[in-house]
Every structure is written in C-alpha cells, then in structure tokens.
Amino acid sequence: MKFALFLVSVFISLSALAQADRFDKVQIKTTQLTQNIYMLEGEGGNIGVSAGEDGVFMIDDQFAPLTPRILAAVKAISDKPVRLLLNTHWHFDHVGGNENLGKSGVVIIAQDNVRKRMSAKTAIDFFKSSYGPAAPAALPVITFNETVTFHLNGDDATALHLANAHTDGDSIIHFRNANVIHMGDTYFNGLYPFIDVGTNGSVKGVIAAADRALAMSDDNTKIIPGHGPLSNKRELKAYRDMLAAVYPKVERMVKAKKTLAQVIAAKPTKDYDAAWGNGFLKPEQFVEIVYASATKR
After folding, report:
1. What mean pLDDT comes out for the span 197-220?
2. pTM listed for this prediction
3. What domains sit in the chain, N to C, each tagged with a CATH number?
C-alpha cells in the first residue's frame, strides 16, 4: 500500500491499538537535556518531561499500550507524580495515552482546537482515515487560545499556539531557563514533514512556526522535534529553509494551473530528496501535501 509505512508508524487505526503485540518490542529511550528536562523516545511523537520538586510535567504521551513503559521511564527520572500533561496537537500518536493518564488524575492541557478535534470524529483526509471522538477522560480539561505559562521546577515554560501549522491546534513549548524548545509536529527533524492540510495545517504555517522557534533560539538551544532525533538551531534552520525553497516552486505551478501529476513530474524537491526524502514520506508524497496546501491557500 502506497502509504503503509507511515500509516503503520504514526497514524495506526483504533482497531490496531487493541493489539498489544503491536508494541511489544518498543523500548523507551531517555535522554537528559538539562538538570530537569528530558526527552523520551519510543513509538510516536517525542515526549518532553520536566521533573523536579514541583512534580512531573509531560509533553505528549504516544500510544495507550505504551503508558506503563512511559511511566516506568518517568519513575526512573523522578519519584514525584505526573501532575500535568500538555498535548502539542490532536494526532493519535501524541495523545494516545491521554485516557490512561487522565483516569489516573493527571491534568491535561492543550490549545482550544485540540479539545474540539478530539471531542468529535475527525478525519485525516490525506490517509482517508478518521479518529474519535475520544473518551471523556482523554480530553484536555484546561484549554487556551494563544499562550499559557507553567511556573514549575525552577523554570517558566510557555506554550505558544502556532496557527495553521501542522494542524490548527499546534503548540510549541519554550523552557526559558533551561533553553529547551519542544516543537511537536511543527518540526520533523531530517524528514519531509506530514502536514495535516485537512485540519487546517499549511506549509506557510509550519515555516512561521520554525521562524518563531528560531527567534527564541541560540546556538546552545536544545530542540525536541515531534519526530526525529534531538536537534538544534542549525538543523531547524535547514528544515525551515528547505520548506521555504520548495513551497514557492509548487505555488507557482499551482497558479499556472498545473495538475498534481504535472507538479510531481516536475520534481520540485529534487535538490532536497537525498537529505529529507528517506523518512515517513517519500518525495512525491510530500509534494502532494505541499500541492494541497498551495491549492487551499
């Protein structure tokens, strides 16, 4: 199937979630970034953890069957309870553990549109799939419009809404004192990104999100991407520049009334395929997303 690899890796169906053996071999890798900030990798979106005297603050939670392993990894970091969970957006590889954590008393926070998307049956048009509505315990109980700041564990962590980027409900989280940014799926490090145009994501919005993060970064900033390895300002700039180079090429062809097939045949990503085209999306699939974004503009 054309998109099988990406579907299996990231947006697996609800029926597949019931098959625990799907995750049997997944191990949670913990990387300490600063005294209190950690990055957890397993399967699905990268998790951020702030752990200290005020308790544990998590960013995203991957898939429901992984919750025990994720919590075991957190327990190895801190004996404090998980108090807060922030979802960077609504996609299931980032919120799959919400119900488990919500039932345990963790307070879930997200941008307004995340709760709206999770509260209803929501489609991912590109993959012809749909999800939800989520169980009540999985829903964010605190939502915000533009920004919210968490004052805990010796830091001021601000979540910023980036409109119409990967989706219409994306947040990036800036730990000011630690100099760490979690970007959710506004950043796929080393990969052509999936952008959910069907839920109002856009290439221009992802570029704007990268610009926002770059403005908050310096050469020592540690950047947690939604997918891919731990990153930095230089790598984020390369990602931003790739998007900013590809999008105008496709946009010009859209304005010239070129069909999707014609745009794909023109290979607008050819200068970047070696570096970015070996991940979730192959070049022609990424061009299809960029075309959809330029068409919808």
Report:
1. 98
2. 0.92
3. 27-246 (3.60.15.10)
